[in-house]
From TrEMBL:
PANTHER family per the UniProt record, alphabetical: CBS DOMAIN-CONTAINING PROTEIN CBSX2, CHLOROPLASTIC, CBS DOMAIN-CONTAINING PROTEIN DDB_G0289609
Signal peptide region: none
The protein, known as: CBS domain-containing protein
Stored SMART domains: CBS (SM00116)
Keyword Repeat attached: yes
Lineage per the UniProt record: Archaea, Thermoproteota, Thermoprotei, Desulfurococcales, Desulfurococcaceae
Domain CBS: 16-74, 82-140
Length: 158
């Protein structure tokens, strides 16, 4: 990663998790929770039989819509509580765009679609974006060192 690069130079495909963990809308919330635990993920992309994006289900959805209401997770279906028509990004979108969408809409998971097929091919999370921060901290530190070095050279030349 060069000094001149920013978040807008990193593409979603570079940081997304792929393939996405998916489920169907008729899956029980209990089964969806088991799938999340088994795969150590915080969300599932909800698709139909043709793998078309229908929605997203997060741990927060399960807590808010099932657990907090005392509902039976075996009788509630994913399609009943998922976020329909979720925001999404394409593989060739910038990480900056993904981060902006997450910030503007207070969301932590974005389905990633193939720009040609419009089918889900991954997921990007706030955690994926935060993992980039050390790279940019190093870039800032390197820039500061270069500025300091140039300032010292200017003083020496005077």
């Amino acid at each position: 990663m060069g000094l001149e690069e920013g978040y807008d130079d990193v593409l979603v495909r570079d940081i997304m998790s792929s393939p996405p963990i998916t489920t169907l809308p008729m899956t029980s919330v209990k089964e969806a929770a088991r799938i999340m635990l088994e795969n150590r993920v915080g969300s599932l992309i909800v698709v139909n039989e043709r793998n078309t994006l229908l929605g997203i289900l997060t741990k927060t959805d399960i807590i808010r819509e099932v657990v907090a209401k005392g509902l039976d997770p075996e009788s509630v279906r994913v399609g009943d509580i998922m976020t329909r028509n979720p925001y999404y990004v394409y593989t060739d979108d910038s990480v900056e765009r993904a981060a902006s969408l997450m910030g503007e809409h207070n969301i932590g998971h974005l389905p990633v679609l193939d720009p040609e097929t419009k089918k889900p091919v991954g997921i990007v999370t706030k955690t994926d974006i935060v993992k980039l921060a050390p790279n940019y901290i190093n870039v800032i530190y390197s820039l500061k060192q270069e500025i300091d070095r140039r300032e010292r050279l200017k003083r020496i030349r005077k």
